Amino acid sequence: MDDVTISTNVHFCGVGQGLFVRGSTLIKLVRASAESQSEYTRTLLHWVYDCGSTDDKLVIDKVNSLAGADQRPQFSERAPDERPILDFVVISHFDCDHIRGLSSLLKAYKVKRIFLPYHDPLAILGEVFSSLDESARDVDPRDLIQAWTDPVAYIRRIQNGGTLGDSMVRADDDPTKIIYVPYSDDPAPERGNREPQYSDSPEPVMAIRRPQSEEVPSSQDADVSILTASSNVVWCGVWEFVPYVDPQARQALLSFKPAEKIKLDAQLEKIKTRSNDPKETEERLWEAILDLKLQFYKAVSRKKVRRGRSEKVSPREKNVISLMAYLGAVPSLPSGVWARIPDDKSAYPPQVMPNVPGWVRHHGDGALFTGDGFLRGSKDISKLVRFLGVSRIENTVLLQVPHHGSGQNGSKFTQDALNTPINVFCANPSESPYHPDTAVVDAFATWKDASTGYRQALRVLVNRLDFSVRLVTGARAYPGYYWWV
Ligand SMILES: [Zn+2]
Predict the structure, then answer these.
(1) Which residues form a coiled coil (predicted)?
(2) Most buried residue, 209, 254, 332, 369, by most Cβ within 10 Å?
(3) Does domain 3-118+150-248+320-473 match CATH 3.60.15?
(4) Burial readout 134-164 (b: 16 or more C-beta within 10 A, e: otherwise)
């Protein structure tokens, strides 16, 4: 009889105000052969969800120390240049506190695939402007302009170690595949509605297409593709990544008149050209970026004012593009999650006094990473629930609380609907914007166990200390079994 165990280690890196999640998933298939002798195959996947912080040094040090630790024999697969391999990286959106470590990550690791939210360069500019304040001034404006307007060109440039202008020159024979994830209008394929089709292949199964010309930046790059809307990516037939982009992003980020869009597009093109000119000073480029920011906000505001709404650009307009990621087993098998509760009390928000030391165990093996997405009101939440389906929602035991625990993005409705026993807030409470919000931390105090009623949920603040959670699936799932670190 075929048997499967899946073991996922989710490591939240302490990078202060930011998000850097490093995951490893071991899929072990046990197949009965004709001679009734079992055959084993093991697939070990390494992945990352977001890699940024408002503290540049913190995230870069963390990337380099992890890459050093990953030079282990367990990494059976190495790039020709000996770098460890990441099977996939998900970038939720392009704010500094989510991508600042990306260039270090791409240098330290060979990355097979990167998933990005599908975007209009202007929409992304609107969104990233939220992080564009004085604190971003130590970042090279040329890097920012390229990362935001054409992330593929930016990624290629980092990988080639080249300077601006040679971004399409390939030094790598096997370039990173970049996959844009479109807006999720329809529900994802239902989870576990058929017998799992076990597969030994370490390559994921997914439906992608080539972009049409000009559909996305760098659409001419042979390794850029677009995922079929509302689809999932499946490894070995048993473990899935289900990306979600709120379809509202479309309206929220491009809510200005076509004529204004043309004007802004032209202004953006001009900035791009200027950033390729080595004679342009950083200061002048900053000025140009800030002016575009102003014009963009004015254009968004004009439309809103016409509709009788507030003139201010809302947090939603800045962050709604966030690419969320559900990860979990496809078949519904016995499963559990273990979290080592940190001994250090400073690992908890001040409101939390955990009363269960040691390991905690709950049923389920799904994790939901939300970036800075919106799951505050019932409308946002029901869209996500409809998209993922009840089975995945019930299977979700680990939540990265949206937007570092901001009161704009999460609420008691979020926890009522998702009902997650383990909730992680990644933030530095002593620094602006002072996440997490007390009301949100309180909202995640309990979860409802079907058999025993309300129980205390685990809430962990990941500031400087790391925090690890282990999700285990399979008939013989218990802590320590098939574990490799
Ligand atoms: Zn953020």
Answers:
(1) none
(2) 369
(3) yes
(4) ebbeebebbbbbbbbbbbbbbbbbbbbeeeb
Distance 476 CA to ligand 1 centre (A): 38
Domain boundaries, the chain: 3-118+150-248+320-473, 119-149+249-319
Q: What's the 92 CA to ligand 1 centre distance in angstroms?
A: 9
CA angle 383, 474, 336 (to 5 degrees): 60
Distance 371 CA to ligand 1 centre (A): 7
pLDDT in tens, 260-276: 888 988 998 899 899 88
Nearest alpha-carbon partner for 218 in 141, 128, 116: 116
94: CA distance to ligand 1 center in Å? Answer: 9
Output the CA 377–ligand 1 centroid distance in Å.
Answer: 19
> What digits encode the pLDDT tens for the residues 195-228?
777 888 889 999 999 999 888 888 899 999 999 9
Give me ligand 1 centre to Cα 8, in Å. 24
Residues 305-346 have pLDDT tens digits of: 555 555 556 667 667 789 999 999 998 887 777 776 666 655
**Amino acid (1-letter code) at residue 63:** V
Q: Parallel, antiparallel, or unpaired for β 239-244 and 324-329?
A: antiparallel
275 token code pair: 């950033």
